[in-house]
Amino acid sequence: VNRGEITRSLAALSRQEWDGYVSTNRVAPNSGLERELQKIWARILNIPPDTIGVHDSFFRLGGDSITCMQVAAQCSRTGILITVKDIFKRRTIEKLAAAAVVVQC
């Protein structure tokens, strides 16, 4: 698979086409933890937070092993303990939030 070709194809999609591709029926975050995870994903994946629902797959949004490491590191800096393995296993904000350990810094 040519990653560059995939990236160019995705970049050519309109906002409506992109939303249709990545979205399940978008459900907004219900808790502060879900909102924080949404912001972190948006920052790392370089997409608007409001396009990420709690049931959307990290990988369908464009995530990969490198961005998993970045998300896990950013979560750790904000006091949310999530591993790369957690992201691969749980894939959605809703499932990650349910499994996350939050520590007070």
Structure report:
The structure is a single chain. The chain has 105 residues and is mostly helical. It has a single domain, classed as Orthogonal Bundle (Non-ribosomal Peptide Synthetase Peptidyl Carrier Protein, Chain A), CATH 1.10.1200. It has six helices and two strands. It has helices spanning 3-11, 15-22, 32-45, 65-77, 84-90, 93-99; strands at residues 80-81, 101-102. A two-stranded antiparallel sheet has the order 1-2. Helix 3 (32-45) packs across helix 4 (65-77) and helix 3 crosses helix 6. The radius of gyration is 14 Å and the shape is globular. The model has no long low-confidence stretch (mean pLDDT 88).
Throw out a few tags for this protein:
105 residues; mainly alpha; Non-ribosomal Peptide Synthetase Peptidyl Carrier Protein, Chain A; two-stranded antiparallel sheet; 6 helices; 55% helix; phosphopantetheine binding; phosphopantetheine; ligase activity; phosphoprotein; Peptide synthetase
Widest sheet, order of strands: 1-2
Topology order in helix (H) and strand (E) letters: HHHHEHHE
Structural class: mainly alpha
> In percent, how much strand structure appears in the residues?
under 5%
Name the shape in a single word.
Answer: globular
CATH superfamily: ACP-like
Helical residues, percent? 55-70%
Q: What's the total helix number?
A: 6
Spans of at least 5 consecutive residues with low confidence: none
Total strands: the figure is 2
How far from one another are the termini?
Answer: 42 Å
Q: Mind summarizing the main beta sheet?
A: 2 strands, antiparallel
Q: Please indicate the count of domains.
A: 1
Protein name: Peptide synthetase
Pfam family, one: PP-binding
GO molecular function: ligase activity; phosphopantetheine binding
Domain Carrier: 28-104
